[in-house]
């Protein structure tokens, strides 16, 4: 191999490595497309909450990642999983008789399970929701809807809206009770 060819190969490899590093760094910084991928529908909801201001929304999402990105979820043991699953089944059964009470119980149960897994305590709902959105972005809206209905002063939601919110919240419940259970603790996929 000639010296010129070796130098050319080294330069090409160096450029590929630099390009890969730039891509990784932009992804960790959460550039627009990285945040869209990571947060999915939560990205769109946050942009809408900021009146379409993507820069402000992305700043908020980046702040969430900085605060909660390194959170380690504590896995549930088999007994905890079964106990929580039984409580969720009770919520679903109770929904037929008393939808509002079932939604309130689902809200409390999600807050409890999240706290047990290592998220901020449910008494700090906004902080807990922000942390959950970093690790479970695709399912956090169901919890948000259940919480809003559980804490509404008047009964504005009809039974179908409550049922839909409960179904959405169940996806997060499944994530929290199954994710990492029995495995070694670690960051949840984002």
Helix content: over 70%
Number of helices: 9
Low-confidence stretches: 181-190
The rough form would be described as: elongated
Main β sheet profile: none
Oligomer: single chain
- SS-based structural class? mainly alpha
Number of domains: 2
Number of strands: 0
Distance between the termini: 45 Å
* Residue-averaged pLDDT: 86
Strand % is under 5%
Rg of Cα set: 21 Å
Pattern of helices and strands: HHHHHHHHH
Provide the fold topology.
Layout: H1 3-29, H2 32-39, H3 41-49, H4 54-68, H5 78-97, H6 99-117, H7 125-135, H8 140-150, H9 159-178
Task: Give a structural overview.
The chain is elongated. Helix 6 (99-117) packs parallel to helix 9. The protein has helices at residues 3-29, 32-39, 41-49, 54-68, 78-97, 99-117, 125-135, 140-150, 159-178. The longest helix is centred in the first third of the chain and has 27 residues, at 3-29. 74% of the residues lie in helices and 0% in strands. It contains nine helices and no strands. The protein has two domains: 3-68, no CATH class; 78-178, no CATH class. It is mainly alpha-helical and 190 residues long.
Short description:
74% of the residues lie in helices and 0% in strands. With 190 residues, it is mostly helical. The C terminus is likely disordered.
């Amino acid at each position: 191999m000639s010296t010129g060819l070796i130098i050319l190969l080294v330069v090409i490899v160096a450029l590929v490595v630099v390009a890969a590093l730039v891509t990784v760094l932009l992804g960790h910084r959460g550039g627009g497309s990285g945040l869209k991928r990571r947060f999915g529908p939560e990205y769109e909801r946050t942009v809408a909450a900021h009146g379409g201001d993507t820069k402000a929304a992305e700043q908020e999402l980046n702040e969430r990642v900085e605060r909660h990105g390194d959170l380690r979820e504590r896995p549930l043991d088999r007994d905890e999983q079964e106990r929580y699953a039984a409580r969720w089944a009770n919520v679903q059964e109770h929904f037929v008789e008393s939808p509002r009470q079932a939604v309130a119980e689902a809200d409390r149960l999600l807050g409890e399970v999240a706290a047990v897994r290592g998220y901020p305590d449910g008494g700090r709902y906004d902080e807990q929701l922000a942390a959950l959105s970093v690790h479970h972005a695709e399912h956090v809206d169901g919890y948000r809807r259940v919480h809003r209905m559980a804490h509404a002063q008047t009964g504005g939601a009809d039974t179908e809206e409550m049922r839909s919110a409960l179904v959405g919240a169940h996806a997060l419940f499944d994530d929290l009770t199954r994710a990492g259970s029995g495995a070694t603790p670690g960051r949840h996929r984002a």
